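Copine-8, Myiagra hebetior. Tokens?
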Amino acid sequence: SGGARDMAGLGVPESGTGPGLIPATRVELTVSCRQLLDRDTFSKSDPLCVLYTQRPGSHQWREFGRTEVIDNSLNPDFLRKFVLDYCFEERQNLRFDLYDVDSKSPDLSKHDFLGQAFCTLGEIVGSAGSRLEKPLTGIPGKKCGTIILLAEELGNCRDVATLQFCANKLDKKDFFGKSDPFMVFYRSNEDGTFTICHKTEVVRNTLNPVWAAFAIPVRALCNGDHDRAIKVEVYDWDRDGSHDFIGEFTTSYRELARGQSHFNVYEVVNPRKKMKKKKYLNSGTVTLLSFEVETEHTFLDYIRGGTQLNFTVAIDFTASNGNPSQPTSLHYLSPFQLNAYSLALRAVGDIIQDYDSDKMFPALGFGAKVPPDGHVSHEFPLNGDASNPACRGIAGVLEAYQRSLRRVQLYGPTNFAPVVNHVARSAATVLDGSQYFVLLIITDGVISDMAQTKEAIVNAAKLPMSIIIVGVGQAEFDAMVELDGDDIRISSRGKVAERDIVQFVPFRDYMSGGPGAGLSMAGLAREVLAEIPDQLLSYMKARGIKPPPVPPMPPETPP
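Tokens:
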């Protein structure tokens, strides 16, 4: 809002790498640019910044996240931050690419490149005031402008404030109608500069707007310092991006926390008008209508409070995987090494099993002809027991998978909806937050029941469940990327999914060189499980479920 279009999800921070690392400090990066190239004919560029990072020991750049798009601006101050784990002992390479966005497509090749900058996180943190300015390069013979990067260590304050404001008698700025006001909030930094932290929506054609209530982490508003100045600017929105300044006021978290009172009515002052006109009083007033604060709960709060993760595995037994007796098959059972299905299952299962107390995992297959009559099934139990498809531990799942390969005939088509609905039926019976269901689908790719799967996912998004899809083999996984819903939320028959619950990862990204060489199973697990905590939180939050208090420790028996 306020002229900004939202584009893609925030990158998931890389957590510490390798065993025994001290938990890293978290750093929030704010990005601004000045004097960007103008690539649009009739208006200014609409910039977007994309951050890429490298894993330790790798030279491959991976997209970490994107800011929002800001319309019609060559000097953008991006609102969306990047939150990174900062490890003093590691060289953390960063690359910032800027694009002029011309359409809603998430595909960057469809937009105009505006330049790029390279640096390390240590370089930003180590600069004076942790503020680094660099020229943008990458277009020969052109000055691409500069990028300004500001790093601020995040306090561990977990409070979230919800505020609502209205204004009265704001200055009229538009020739034909009244103003279209919006507000921009800035927190002050240690060195007296200001960092943007919130923009309200635009309220059209009024001098007495009432803005919608908004929630903001307290650390974003004042970084945990309740007396730090908060500056608020009021603007009249213009379509061409040249928003008219109405006026400003300053406050602090401590003042706002007093709630609705005469302390929280602010005069909106335009300093230039004040200097020019003797009789000038103000350009209107802004009033705080309500203020509430509550503690944001974390994934670990729920785990500590006893929420169990229930893990179900679904394996693709379609003929496109190749004949399991041939070494070229993705299902080939070699006496010397695990195949891709077993590796992916082990990588994800080994981590998730720590959160499941009974260690019993339902395991299903789909796309095969099953005994005794050879009918095609899209949800058959790997252990052969339809009434209880659960296997003991990850080892039990691997064993049942290998037994099934010898029992069934690979066939087709590749239908996901039955296994999604299978887990959804279980999840629908436990909506109180005590259990959360995770379905791991391992597949070689091309999906046959896209419409039914989308419908199943949209329905499942209301339930306490997440879906992880690991793609094995060399197929094109375009359909899986669409199901992932990071860029465009998935929809079915006009209904949009309530939450993004699907995470897709191609297995081949984690295999390099010969068999077993540079195979990063830890990396695969981290990528696959990265979104689960936020997805669990989004369910709990939507349902208003608070974590139960931590159960008391049993009394220790004396030695």
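The domain at 159-295 is CATH 2.60.40.150 (Immunoglobulin-like).
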